[in-house]
Amino acid sequence: MNVGILGTGKLAVTLGRAWAAAGHSLSVAGRNPLHAGGAVQQIGPAAEAVDPADLATRVDVLVIAVAWEGLEAALSLVGGPQGALAGKTVIDCTNPVDYTTGALKPVSGSAAALVAHTAPGAHVVKALHLFAGASWPYVGPQELAPVVAICGDEPGALDRAAALIQDLGGQTAVVGGLSGARQLEEAAGFVMRVVAAGYNPRLAVPDVDPALLRAAETTTG
Ligand SMILES: NC(=O)c1ccc[n+]([C@@H]2O[C@H](COP(=O)([O-])OP(=O)(O)OC[C@H]3O[C@@H](n4cnc5c(N)ncnc54)[C@H](OP(=O)(O)O)[C@@H]3O)[C@@H](O)[C@H]2O)c1
């Protein structure tokens, strides 16, 4: 795939490197061409810095990796409000969360809903916001691969997101439509709150084996 990355910071570089290693081409754009050039240098030869105005036409999938505060401005740079992303798969990785406390930043609906509103016609998927970029690529036993919970309304867009997650080494759990994005974003806030309290969030959720749960339900039901 030709993957567009809107954003030139840490997440853009770590995802870009992992997807480049998996054989994808990357087009990278941001508000600062120098930062886009720097990100491309770090990703390697599979990546190209492009003018934000050209990004939408060049890519199969657009991944949004900008600071939450810059979300609307960044979408404007690529022509989102003018319909440039209509029909495109757009993966929203942003976190409207204060990283130091886990507090959610004020947003009407969800960040992903704001993307859908600001880029009319885009096939928005909320994904890849919860795990640190440095988690990717995952190399290890498949049964222990990170499970990336995603949501969206368009099956083709969910499939494309799942394919990119697979190329990072992750597993994908589709948990519903885009109306569920706020819950996924709140999960990031929850993780940060547990971290701020001094604990490992991996130990703050129950260990539930769905197969055992179903078997128990069958027995009792
Ligand atoms: N880092 C991670 O591991 C990780 C993991 C999951 C999700 N996320 C989420 O991914 C997003 C990016 O995180 P990051 O760690 O890559 O942050 P970062 O390194 O600070 O990079 C932020 C990016 O957002 C751009 N930006 C900021 N304000 C903007 C504005 N007003 N208009 C246009 N662009 C703007 C920055 O451009 P300039 O360079 O010009 O300032 C930069 O390209 C955040 O929403 C974060 O919550 C990060």
TrEMBL record:
Pyrroline-5-carboxylate reductase catalytic N-terminal domain boundaries: 3-96
Superkingdom of origin: Bacteria
Entry-linked InterPro entries: NAD(P)-bd_dom_sf, P5C_Rdtase_cat_N, STEAP_metalloreductase
Pfam families documented for this protein: F420_oxidored
Keyword annotations from UniProtKB, A to Z: Oxidoreductase
Gene3D superfamilies with a match to the protein in the record: NAD(P)-binding Rossmann-like Domain
Name of the protein in its database record: NAD(P)-binding domain-containing protein
Organism lineage: Bacteria, Bacillati, Actinomycetota, Actinomycetes, Streptosporangiales
